[in-house]
């Protein structure tokens, strides 16, 4: 197997519409087949991928067919259909053969199989691959009339088979048909032409439990009111109604993030009666399995799912039975690894024959309108703009997304529900008119465990507002109640939204996390205990600075007592926690008890070098005579140098050594860049160029600017250039005039296209054009005339930000009107640059009244992150009337970060 070949084959199969699981036991891939409309057919194929360039260059023939003989191929019996796939790196095509016993030929010493060139995996081969999965193409079963006892189940998970024909007279509408319309999210129809008919039916049949069930379900779907459905009595009703009511209650409770209560409801429903139909019984069982998985009861869920999976065999003519069986089998696959139980393997061959086929359309990917892709890649800054962008043309797609989330939820189809519910929630985030709707959408993303979309939405709210939905969620969030799907999302929320959390709430989260480190109860969420520990420590690192002193002390005590950390990833997370402690100590001027500090340093001797070094940094903060770290700096340890914090007070001898060492490293980076290879590991958290600039500026008599100029002239990766140039921007007035002149030409070159850099890191490189333009404009204003600034303002966010920096330095009154417009720019970094410019003008008494007036308007609607930017800027300046005035401007903002940062700033001022 070649990972590159496997990745390409996965993409090819997904383009064909198939769903793929990688690294399945005894195979590279497990493929869930779908037809041309992307309907899930319930069939499975194991795929083995081979990537052999030398073989592909030398095709053979077999009975007139061109292809390739794959030798050393072992055949073994398997309940799954199997494909062997050859991947051609040159053409990026994948060729397949169905592995059967008769196609594997023995040569005496080995076995071989022929892969025909004509068998290319593409859209034209979908039918052939489906035939491989089933032995023959599945034919849609002719559905007899749906029995009355099953119609309610059909209405919830196969509503297309129940809804009345749109041209039939309204008098034929029944309660089950009305429920089917609810499952299809036809709220407009139900509120429009049919409303009077349904209202009349509700009045005429107020004692009919199926109509009452419709009424309760309508309230939940239309207004998300749960009281009527959760209080719906399941006693003294027919078994099919009781089963449907139990399923709906479980669905509602699951979406309300109450799986434990859903389990209780379902267990009560299963124990209450023994007259459920076999399909209804399996239906209740898969719902119970779904909720048990969320709370970590994997063994019980596995037993239930395996039992329910047999219903497809027993009731083959019932498409809802086949759907339930398919969902149950997905749970079995999912739980095999989690439980370590493989007893189902010998049942696969039998169950496969009765897996869902003609029910496939129930699980189709209905988001053909591209809403998911739109939400991920083009999330508008303004939700008003989003409503215009979405428009009426997306209403059908949104209705289908809502319908699919309902149908898959009622069917306990966890994976399909997660996708549909996430897409529907993303639409709500773009179009919601109220805070409650935004809270609902964010909670759906949490419950579904869709972390990427949730973090994107969270970032938008923090950077652009409103903050109220996040604040409401954070006030109600309990890590104790988190589930298998929601806990990673909850961890992300707590870490990212710390600016909205008051000290009491942060303390509660931190204490729960400490308890979990000592006695873990949710390890099942991450599978491996060290992964869980790693996630917890990362959250603690993010929230440490917002904890009370008492809780901080408990975290420190825990650090002292834990065993040595050798795992690199775990050590990196603990190192981040130590850095958070260092930052807090510096902010508040805290001192450590000597005995406690010594215990921490002593335990550091048994740790990974990364963590050990960070602990040494902590000691250096509290022990300025710490010879060990000082000695490391003396011998050229850049990690130690980066951690020293105070370059101004380093002895000249050490600075000279460090500058020489950095110059050598710069030459190494340039040489390797010229050769077209990577210059080594970039896991460090600092830039060589940035440190060198700091040393040159803080010790001008020891300075060596030549390495800086060489990096600029040779245009190496922006992973080094951008932080270094930004450091020069902050200290541009201290750059010697002759050095600035030498920088002029390379900076002008860097203002051009960024693809002229020697090394490009797609995931980590920033655009160097903006910082280069800003530095050139600061050093040589005449080289960046207003015509060029105007051109930069029409560029991307990096160039606009650079233009703002240049205009801020020129301090012209005309810039204020431009700043006012740019304060509403789509990019947060541009807004941040505008605010930084105005704060600086106020502090430096540059058009102070006009600047403060504009800043006041911006602060009125400022996001959490923008307020944090203002506080951070003020904290870097000494106390003054202007600084006090700026603090007064943000003091009344209702964000938890404000009083916390105000106290830090005032403490710094008192210590100064």
From TrEMBL:
InterPro entries: ARM-type_fold, DUF4365. Residues 5-132 form the DUF4365 domain. Pfam families: DUF4365. This is DUF4365 domain-containing protein. It comes from Corynebacterium matruchotii ATCC 14266.
């Amino acid at each position: 197997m070649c990972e590159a070949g496997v990745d390409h084959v996965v993409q090819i199969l997904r383009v064909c519409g198939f769903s793929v699981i990688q690294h399945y036991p005894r195979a590279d891939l497990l493929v869930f087949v779908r037809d041309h409309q992307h309907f899930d057919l319930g069939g499975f194929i194991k795929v083995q991928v081979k990537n052999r360039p030398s073989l592909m260059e030398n095709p053979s023939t077999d009975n007139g067919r061109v292809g390739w003989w794959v030798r050393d191929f072992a055949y073994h019996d398997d309940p799954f259909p199997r494909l062997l796939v050859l991947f051609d790196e040159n053409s990026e095509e994948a060729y397949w053969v169905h592995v059967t016993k008769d196609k594997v030929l023995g040569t005496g010493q080995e076995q071989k199989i022929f892969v025909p060139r004509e068998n290319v995996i593409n859209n034209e081969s979908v039918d052939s691959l489906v035939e491989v999965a089933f032995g023959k193409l599945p034919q849609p079963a002719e559905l007899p009339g749906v029995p009355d006892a099953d119609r309610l189940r059909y209405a919830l998970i196969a509503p297309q088979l129940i809804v009345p024909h749109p041209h039939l007279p309204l008098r034929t509408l029944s309660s089950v048909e009305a429920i089917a319309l609810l499952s299809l999210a036809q709220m407009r129809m139900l509120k429009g032409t049919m409303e009077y008919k349904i209202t009349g039916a509700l009045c005429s049949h107020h004692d009919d439990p199926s109509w009452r069930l419709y009424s309760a379900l309508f309230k939940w779907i239309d207004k998300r009111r749960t009281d009527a459905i959760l209080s719906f009595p399941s006693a003294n009703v027919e078994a099919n109604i009781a089963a449907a009511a139990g399923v709906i209650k479980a669905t509602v409770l699951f979406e309300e993030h109450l799986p434990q209560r859903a389990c209780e409801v379902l267990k009560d429903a299963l124990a209450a009666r023994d007259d459920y139909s076999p399909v209804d019984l399996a239906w209740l069982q898969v719902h119970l399995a779904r909720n048990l998985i969320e709370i970590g009861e994997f063994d019980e869920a596995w037993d239930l799912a395996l039992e329910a999976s047999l219903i497809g065999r027993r009731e083959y003519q019932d498409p809802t039975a086949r759907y339930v069986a398919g969902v149950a089998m997905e749970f079995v696959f999912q739980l095999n690894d989690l439980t370590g139980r493989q007893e189902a393997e010998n049942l696969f061959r039998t169950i496969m024959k009765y897996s869902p086929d003609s029910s496939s359309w129930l699980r189709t990917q209905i988001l053909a309108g591209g809403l998911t892709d739109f939400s991920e890649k083009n999330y508008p800054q303004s939700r008003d703009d989003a409503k215009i962008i979405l428009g009426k043309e997306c209403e059908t797609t949104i209705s289908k997304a809502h319908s699919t989330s309902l149908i898959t939820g009622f069917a306990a189809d966890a994976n399909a529900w997660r996708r549909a519910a996430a897409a529907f929630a993303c639409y709500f985030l773009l179009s919601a008119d109220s805070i409650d709707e935004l809270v609902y959408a964010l909670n759906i993303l949490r419950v579904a465990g869709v972390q990427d979309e949730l973090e994107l939405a969270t970032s938008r709210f923090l950077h652009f507002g409103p903050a109220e939905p996040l604040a409401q969620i954070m006030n109600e969030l309990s890590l104790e109640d988190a589930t298998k799907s929601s806990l990673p999302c909850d961890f992300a929320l707590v870490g990212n939204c710390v600016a909205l959390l008051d000290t009491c709430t942060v303390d509660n989260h931190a204490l729960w996390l400490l308890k979990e480190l000592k006695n873990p109860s949710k390890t099942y969420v991450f599978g491996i205990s060290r992964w869980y520990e790693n996630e917890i420590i990362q959250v603690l690192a993010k929230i440490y600075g917002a904890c009370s002193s008492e809780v901080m002390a408990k975290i420190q005590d825990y650090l002292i007592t834990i065993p040595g950390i050798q795992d690199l990833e775990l050590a990196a997370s603990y190192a981040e926690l130590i850095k958070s402690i260092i930052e807090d100590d510096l902010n508040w001027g805290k001192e450590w008890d000597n005995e406690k500090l010594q215990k921490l340093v002593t335990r550091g001797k048994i740790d990974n070098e990364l963590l050990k070094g960070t602990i040494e940094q902590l000691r250096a903060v509290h022990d300025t005579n710490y010879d060990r770290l000082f000695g490391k700096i003396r011998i050229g340890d850049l990690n130690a140098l980066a951690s020293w914090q105070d370059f101004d007070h380093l002895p000249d001898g050490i600075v000279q050594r460090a500058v020489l060492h950095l110059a050598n490293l710069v030459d190494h980076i340039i040489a390797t860049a010229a050769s077209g290879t990577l210059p080594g590991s970039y896991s460090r958290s600092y830039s060589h160029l940035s440190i060198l600039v700091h040393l040159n500026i803080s010790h001008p008599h020891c300075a060596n600017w030549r390495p800086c100029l060489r990096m600029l002239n040779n245009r190496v990766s922006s992973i080094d250039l951008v932080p270094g140039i930004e450091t020069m921007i902050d200290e541009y007035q201290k750059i010697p005039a002759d050095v600035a002149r030498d920088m002029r030409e390379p900076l002008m070159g860097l203002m051009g296209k960024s693809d002229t850099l020697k090394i490009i890191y797609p995931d980590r490189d920033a655009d160097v054009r903006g910082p280069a333009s800003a530095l050139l404009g600061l050093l040589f204003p005449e080289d960046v005339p207003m015509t060029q600034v105007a051109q930069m303002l029409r560029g991307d966010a990096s160039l606009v930000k650079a233009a703002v920096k240049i205009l801020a330095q020129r301090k012209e009154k005309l810039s204020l009107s431009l700043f006012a417009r740019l304060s509403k720019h789509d990019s947060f970094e541009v807004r941040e640059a505008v605010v930084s410019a105005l704060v600086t003008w106020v502090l430096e008494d540059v058009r102070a009244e006009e600047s403060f007036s504009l800043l006041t308007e911006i602060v009125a609607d400022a996001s959490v992150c923008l307020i944090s930017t203002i506080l951070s800027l003020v904290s870097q300046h000494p106390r003054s009337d202007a600084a006090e005035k700026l603090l007064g401007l943000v003091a009344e903002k209702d964000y938890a970060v404000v009083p916390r940062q105000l106290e830090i700033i005032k403490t710094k001022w008192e210590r100064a």
